[in-house]
Structure formats: C-alpha cells, structure tokens
Amino acid sequence: MRKFTDRTMKGQALLFISILLLGSVMGQVSYTIPEEITKGSFIGNIAQDLGLETKRLTSGKARIYSRDSDDYIELNRERGVLLVKERIDREVLCRQTTPCALHFQIILENPMEFYSVTVQITDINDNKPTFEEGEIKFKISESAFIGTTFVAVDLDVGMNNLKNYELKPTDNFALKLRNNADGNRNVEMVLQQPLDREKQEQISLVLTAVDGGEPQMSGTMLIVITVLDANDNAPVFTQPTYKATVHENSPKGTLVDIVSASDADHGSNGKITYSITNTLDNVRKVFEVNEENGDVNLIGNIDFEDSRNYQIHLLASDKGGLTDSCKLIVDVQDVNDNKPEIDIMSKSTVISEDAKLNTVVTMINIEDKDSGENGNVKCFISENVPFTLKTSTNNFYSLVTDSDLDREISSQYNITVTCSDEGVPSLSSSVTLTLQISDVNDNAPVFERSSYEAYIVENNTPGLSIFTVKARDDDWNQNARVSYILEDSSVNGVPVSSYVSVSADSGVIHAVRSFDYEQIKDFHFRVKAQDGGSPPLSSNVIVKVLIQDQNDNPPQVLYPVQTGGSLVAEMVPRSVDVGYLVTKVVAVDVDSGQNAWLSYKLQKATDRALFEVGLQNGEIRTIRQVTDKDAVKQRLTVIVEDNGQPSRSATVIVNVAVADTFPEVLSEFTDFTQDKEYNDNLTFYLVLALAVVSFLFITCLVVIISVKIYRWRQSRVMYHSNLPVIPYYPPRYSDTLGTGTLQHVYNYEVCRTTDSRKSDCKFGGAGSQNVLIMDPSPTGTMQRIQSEKSILDKPDSPLEVRPSPITYAFWSKKNLYSIPEEMSKGSLIGNIAQDL
C-alpha cells in the first residue's frame, strides 16, 4: 500500500498483479490516486511491480498504449516509473460515473509483450453544490397546503456529494429530505404556517445545499415566493413516477411519454401548465414538455453510449400558483450503431522465415461501444495463411505464427483481420496487415542438370570458352549469389586446373591448354556452386569434356617400307593372269572417324594400263595380261588420302619387276641402283659446296669488321694521349729488315653488345696495349703509360664516341708525326728532308 499526502498524493495506490501466458507475457497492475494531483507526481514503480528491469523497458522501447489515457499518464523508461502527465479532473473525465479509472497498456517489443494497467481516480472535495439557477420565483396561493420540491446538484460523488439542505428563515416553510434511486437527495419545501397575502405579499428564502466533503462546501439559491389570492385545489399528477423507453438515435420530435395532472378548480385556477425543473445532465437540451398537454418529446440527439437513462423532473402549475411534481425515468435502449474499432497496438512488418511457432507478430485491441450482444466481438483472419489469432484478455488479440514459414513459397503475406459484433444486423470492421518474410540461407544452389557433357575440337586456342554451367538458388539477395569453384582433382596425374578453369561469377568453363585428341580423348571434373550466405551452402556437378578429333595427322605408310639405301621391288611373272595381286599398300591414320578413312589412288606409273590400285584396300593388281613388250622395271607412285576436311595425304613408290627369273631382275635393277646412287652423291656435293661458300663469306665479313674496329680504337688511344707518339717495342721483339713491324701480331679487339634492348658497343682487348709517349717537359723524360685497361677486366664499361679531334700516327722507317684531324689545307706536318 502507498499513501499520497497533500493534494498531490492523497488516496491510496493499490497494486495487484496477475500473470497470464498466451503467446506473450501478460500482466495487470492497478494503482489508485486522487484527482487534481500536480503534474509530474509519482504514481507507481511499474518496473518493480511487474518484476522487470529498467533496461528491459529501454531495450523493449516500452510505451503506453491507450485510446484515451495517454494525455494524463506518462512512462519514464530510465527510472521505470509512472508519472502524472497532466492535471486530472475526475468530474471532467468521468462525470457521475463511479468508480472513475484510466485503463491503458504497457507495450514492449523484442520479444513483443504487453501489460494492462489501471489507475483509479478518487474524488476530492473540489466542487461546491450548485443550483442551476441562482434565484427562483414561485407564486403560491395563500390557501396552499402542499409542499413544493426543489433539487440542488453537486458534481462530486460518493462521500463528497450532497448531504444536507438548510432553509432560512423557517417561519412559514420547513424542509423534508427524500433519497432518490440515483443517489441524489430531493428536498421538499413544506408549508408549515398558512400564508396571508394581506400581511406579506412576497417572501424571500435562502436554500443552502451542503456536501459531505472535507473541508465542507456549500451552495445557495434565493427563493422568492409571491403570495396569491386563494386557490383551493392544487394540480395532481396521475402517478408520482413515470417510466418510458426510447431507442438511441431516435429522430428529433419523437414522443417519449405523456404526463398528466388534474386540478379540481375551475376557470384560470384549473388551467395547468407543465414544465421541466431538471438542473443536471443537460436534460432540457435533450427533452422538452408541451406546456399544455404534457407531451414529452426529443429535441436533441440521444446516445446510449453517453447516457443509458435520464430522470426528468416535471412540474404541473395552475394559474393560482399551486403545483405538483413528478418524475419521468427514461431508459435508453441500445442500437447496434457502432462498428468494432480495430487498433494496432504493436506490429512487426518483417519476420524471419525461420521464426518459431507462436511467435507474436502483431498485437490488436478491439473495442465496440455498444453493449450486450451488440458489443460482443469475434475476430478472425483470412484463410490459407500460416498465422492464427489468439485472444489473451477481453478485447485483446495476438497474431502469432501457426506453422513453418518459407520465403521461397511466399515472400509476403497480406493478412486481413475482420472483427464482427453479434448485433442484428451485424457490423464489422477489417484491417489488412502486410508482412514481409525475410530470407534465411536454407537452400543450396541447384544445377540445371545432374551432369554435363561438353565438346571441344582438338588443337583449340588456350582460353577458349568450352561450356557454361548454371546453378540457381531459391534464396534471395546475398544468399542467392552463386559462385563457381573448380574442385581439386587430377587427370592422368596432372591437376585439372592445368586443363580447364571456371569463371567464379558466370560459370563459364575455359580451356587452359590446347588439347590433342591423340593424347587424351576425354576427361571429367567437378564444379562446385556455392552461395554467399553465412554459413554458405554448396552443391557440385560432374562435367565431362569430350575432345573431338581434327584431321591434323597425315596417313602413315606401313608397307612397303621406304628405305634410303636399298631398293625393294615386287616381282611379277610374265605369265600371270589378269587381276594378279602384285602387292598391297598398307597405311594407317592416327586420327579417328572419317578423318581416318583412307583411300588409295595410283598417281604415276610407268604403264598405267598394266596396274590398278584398290580404292579402299590399297591392293595393286594387274588389269591386263603381261606381254614381252612390257618393261621389266615398273615404277608406281601411290597416293594415300584420308577423308578429313581438308584431306591429308602421303605417297609411296612401289617398284615392280616384270620378269620370270631373278637374274633378269637383278641385271635390270643394278643399273637403276647405280644411277640412283650417282644422283644421291651429286646432291650431297652440291650441298657441301654451298655450305663452304657461305662459311667463307661470313669469315671475310667478320675480318673486315674487326680491322675497321681495330683502326678506330687505335686512333682513340692516340687522341687521348695529347703527346707525340713513338712506337714502343716490347721485350723479345726487334725491328728486322727495316720494316718497322713486329714479328707477330699481339693486338686484337672484340666488339659486342651488353643488352638486346640497347645498341651501345663495348670493346675489349685480349691484352694491354703499350705505348711510349714523349713528354715535352724540360726534363725530356719518357713515360710508359697504359693506354687502356683490358676490356676483359671491365667488360661493362661503355665506350663513348664523341665528335672530338682524333690523332693519327704515321709510322715511317724511323720517323713519326702526329697531327690532329680537320687541319686546314696547307698546314705543315713536318720537315721530312731535315728529319731524314
């Protein structure tokens, strides 16, 4: 129990929790607070009372769902408490209805669940009793003796409602209290002392209504009574209480009931007028009474959902001021005029196809403002969907999964929820929920065939497309993205990846190498299709590649054997008959099919009229009788062709000896053999002569190039010395016969390139070149320098050729001059006469 002190925390908060399990966790909590507490006041710790952690409220996006309470109550997720959002006035919220309560639900997601909460509003004494009019005037005959009834109204209920009336002064009138069926009190003002118009023509009374609240509050009304001349008889209603029934939504002008009163007087004192004296519930705005005949008619809209009954207080008055009162109780009958209202409390728009059974998808609240059978509602959903509606509490439904979901069968469901009441005629409402089914990687890729066969012609180009395998995946998006992988295997001990490759995206199979039908006729391998899910699913298929033959091999003659040295001849006696089998040409073709079908034709023959060749079998037979005039030596050229496109062929020479005795054959074919040997020797010598001439030409060309390079290199050495150059003779060598030359050549040069992509010439020498240079210094000494390093020591040092002056050295018997190139015409070289 919680106590609320002051105006903000008066009353008591009563907590009770009941747990129901149906699709989602259900709970109910009730609090009691007083009205008029300040904004932000504490109502209750909803998290603690429901047994939830505050982080569950935050993660579940807890919120308040209500049709009419969210303006007054708010939820603090961080603290897990309910607070007052706006000031609550019980009289505005519930009018006279008791008990007065706010009903709402706490909705949580992930998983979806809700809890019902009731906050009861208790009344505080914040309204004083009020009369509809602050002043009322009566005309009463001086001879009146019956009481007149007045009703004071208080908007508070329960203990704060009207408790007592006071009338001052009390000289002529007294008050008589009477409890009504609706809990209000009627007060009758009873005449105690006779009135005398001659003494007091007008009397003013103050009627005070006091409630039972704390502090006590009151309201007053001034009653002004005019005393009329004597009227002996007051009007009298036929019955003190009338009852009537009217249907809601009845049109204006509908007759509700007829009240009647009579007066025993005659004349103006006996004429009765009727009026309504109600001061509550806007009765005068809904009903009116005919002043003359007492007909009570509708003048406003009547709605069962706003008020189920009305109490109309009627007054009958005569001209003499005498009155009588009665009460008309009008019961409003409900009409089925409200459709069920469907409100989506919480819903999911996407659900995974692997969701478990009884997973809550949507929570629905149904309300029908009608009553009785008109307010009884039943809901159902469209058929042939894997969902069902389950009711948790009154007017609350949960849409849950009823069977397994499969996105590949249906990726979206449009679920129509229809709610109908039991009224006559029945009214219904419907709402359509669209639910997307999210994909789960539950389908492996499937190839279009259980196995594949592909054909490729031999001698193909590497990289040629052979075939395309295709697999489909019933999943969606990334889960349906298929990649193709060549599984590891071997063909004749060689990895299959060296034969074919597979495009990962398209599944196109490419040849990695050129195939030869004569080496491999077919092979097979496995291709795996794998999707992009997590974890990935896969399947594989066997692909068989058949290599088709191409006519790339000519026929090979097996017989007769063609030898280079010896001569083989078939002997045909002159006495043979026509069709005699001389020999048979035997050939094979390593190709297959029609590429290996061979045909034999006689291309050349010494005597074409003597022999023929079988087209299919290659048999050489005589086609006429052999005569003495036929030459002994017969030379046949047979061509063997295959049936390919284009066809390939081979030729064979068959020597046939037409003779009866072997010596005759030998003498004829010896000359033939010698002629053949002579021709073979002639050919050999011609080839040998051509080779010798070519070698000599190349040798001369190399020598000429070497001499030119040597001279150029010598000039470069002399140019860089910048000194007079005289020949230096190494030890063991001397000048003989005055020629100035060495006995042996010790200098040579080699020209080569360093890189096939460059053309810089590199020069090298087998040894060092020694030169004596005369130094023109005063000392007159001679220096022996090394002109260049051996090119073998530094083979990669490039040689730069610049357009610089080159020094030429001329050797005579004993004289040497050095001059630069490009000297002008007529320049002095030396005094040769003096020097000699």
TrEMBL record:
Keywords: Calcium, Cell adhesion, Cell membrane, Glycoprotein, Membrane, Repeat, Signal, Transmembrane, Transmembrane helix. One of its GO terms (biological process) is homophilic cell adhesion via plasma membrane adhesion molecules. GO terms for cellular component: plasma membrane. Residues 1-27 form the signal peptide. InterPro entries: Cadherin-like_dom (IPR002126), Cadherin-like_sf (IPR015919), Cadherin_C (IPR032455), Cadherin_CS (IPR020894), Cadherin_N (IPR013164), Protocadherin/Cadherin-CA (IPR050174). It is found in: Cell membrane. Residues 25-131, 132-237, 238-342, 343-447, 448-557, 572-669 form the Cadherin domain. GO terms for molecular function: calcium ion binding. The chain crosses the membrane at residues 684-710. It is a single-pass type I membrane protein. Potential calcium-dependent cell-adhesion protein. May be involved in the establishment and maintenance of specific neuronal connections in the brain. This is Cadherin domain-containing protein. It comes from Cyclopterus lumpus.
